[in-house]
Amino acid sequence: MTHVFVTPGQDWPSDLIIAALKKAGFSVPVLEAELGIGAGSLRNAFYRHVPRYEHLIAQKIGLSPDLIWPSRYGSDNRQSA
């Protein structure tokens, strides 16, 4: 059923990440306040590799970052956090 919303092996769309955060009871502004970062900063993780933000988002959703952003954590391009 997850194939309806997520194409296996592809990064999640930002709208889906936001929806998953909302379902888990969080929002981007709340997480930004928790990290003490400026408004809009957390959204950088939607478009570029920012391990600190990716790990926080994944933790709040209840998944590992490699499931949300497989292109960033694949075996060929694994980067240390």
From TrEMBL:
Q: Which family does it belong to?
A: Belongs to the ner transcriptional regulatory family.
Domain of life of the organism encoding this protein: Bacteria
| Residue stretches making up the Ner winged helix-turn-helix DNA-binding domain | 11-79
- Supply one GO molecular-function term: DNA binding
Task: Provide this UniProt record's keywords sorted from A to Z.
Answer: DNA-binding, Transcription, Transcription regulation
- What Pfam families does the annotation carry? HTH_35
> What is the official name of this protein in its record?
Transcriptional regulator
